[in-house]
């Protein structure tokens, strides 16, 4: 599975991994420590109302690789 470089790619890859494993919302919640409501939002809403922190927790639990780089503008 390729490395996700932005939020949209991460969401797609998490959804794919959950689907491949056949995990239920309850199983994902138990494995990631994230509430069932947030898992349900991730799986059913477009776009899901889920923060990056939550996505990172789920990605780590499901071994989804990600690498985000943030550019900081220098205003001087």
Question: Can you walk me through this structure?
Answer:
- Helix 2 packs across helix 4.
- This protein has 76 residues and is mostly helical.
- The termini are far apart.
Percent in helix: 55-70%
Given the helix and strand composition, which structural class is it? mainly alpha
Computed Rg: 13 Å
Our measurement of the CA-to-CA distance between the termini, rounded to an integer number of angstroms, reads 40 Å
Number of strands: 0
DSSP helical segment count:
4
Main sheet summary: none
Strand coverage percent: under 5%
Unreliable residue stretches: none
Query: What is the ordering of alpha helices and beta strands?
Result: HHHH
Shape: globular
Average pLDDT: 91
């Amino acid at each position: 599975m390729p490395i996700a470089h932005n939020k949209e790619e991460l969401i797609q890859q998490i959804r794919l991994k959950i689907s491949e494993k056949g995990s239920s919302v309850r199983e994902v919640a138990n494995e990631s420590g994230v509430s069932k409501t947030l898992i349900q939002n991730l799986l059913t809403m477009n776009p899901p109302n889920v923060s990056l922190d939550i996505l990172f927790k789920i990605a780590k639990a499901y071994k989804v690789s990600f690498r985000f780089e943030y550019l900081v503008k220098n205003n001087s």
